[in-house]
């Protein structure tokens, strides 16, 4: 799956970025692993359609962080065109691995018990799949373009996506719309992938669908531009923070303004959603950068940094474990049979209300991984995908 190596503490590593990445991944695990999907606190749920909850911020924040990381990891290679081919091939390899891991999560564990059925109904889009595509395309754009051109590409993507979604008539419907099953993106997903390979909860559309991946790339490019600016050595930190805060506030305001015509919507990944979430991510990273990297207030960061340096690893494994627990059956004290995860969860439901038991399970799961990641971090082990 990956290659394990001893991490080297590079002095140029942005601690605030690891902290922000770790907090984002921990939040991903929190919202993806409630004890009971029927009992979840409202902020830990996605908006039903239009609008934005705290949970809706998590994925765009991660793609933004992917973009910032590209600027830091590939900045030196960009200056040498002779290395671009090799760098792009490495990025392609990493993207294919990420995409493959995402597909494996969709197939597991059915691929071992009913392989034919698993492949016939595997969900092709997904979180890791989208990360893979955004990472690779953002990396290529970063290597081959100036910051000015990257900004133009970002704006062009947002404008083109807005035009496609709001002006192009949907085949079979006859008019452009932004509804769940009848928008252009949903039609494209069904036409290319068929309902068998879409999100099982909807079947007729996918929140990580083909067309909405286009503006998701813009979220990655937003992060690339912020990363490029943060890396500049000719600007003092206070000036950087001031400009980044202005940029973040402006993007949030533009996103809210555009929301009046093109609603903020995570499932459609609307252009207003890109600006709104990109602006918030810029504000948060700027604040973390000032506090952690400039002012050196970093004693509180380790629990999140240990998540941040092994982000993809913990996200993948945290999705694998519940599927594995579901494969094993045990007998409860009353003689009824249940899967291992349900049996473990019953220890929470016996003494807490349903909604608090569900939250307690998710928090316990985060702490479980924190212990493992803490040990890995202390031993300087990073699993690189």
Automatic annotation (TrEMBL):
The answer, when asked if Membrane is one of the entry's keywords, is yes
Q: Which parts of the sequence belong to the Heparan-alpha-glucosaminide N-acetyltransferase catalytic domain?
A: 13-166
Q: Which UniProt keywords apply?
A: Membrane, Transmembrane, Transmembrane helix
Q: Which InterPro entries match?
A: HGSNAT_cat (IPR012429)
Matching entries from Pfam families are given as: HGSNAT_cat (PF07786)
The residue ranges crossing the membrane are 57-74, 95-112, 124-143, 150-170, 209-230, 242-261, 273-292, 304-322, 342-375
Protein name according to UniProt: DUF5009 domain-containing protein
